[in-house]
Amino acid sequence: MSARIPWAQTSRAALAAMRQLQQHVNESGLEPSLVQLIDVRVSQINGCAY
């Protein structure tokens, strides 16, 4: 497996965009439990250990 890119240090603009997206999702009105299930599933799809 290759080393991971330190994306938080590489692109501050990307990190800011990700934070804005998460804020939007949190304010969307979706149930927190549904958001958590989506996070876990996306993590599984990406092969990450959430």
Strand content: under 5%
Provide the helix percentage.
55-70%
Shape: flat
Number of strands: 0
Q: Give the count of helical stretches.
A: 3
Oligomeric description of these chains: single chain
Radius of gyration: 13 Å
Mean pLDDT: 86
Distance between the termini: 17 Å
Largest sheet, in brief, is: none
Question: Could you explain how this protein is built, in words?
Answer:
The chain has 50 residues and is an all-alpha fold. 66% of the residues lie in helices and 0% in strands. It has helices spanning 7-10, 12-26, 32-45.
Main attributes?
50 residues; mainly alpha
In short:
This protein is mainly α and 50 residues long. It has helices at 7-10, 12-26, 32-45.
List the helices and strands and how they pair.
Layout lengths: L6 H4 L1 H15 L5 H14 L5
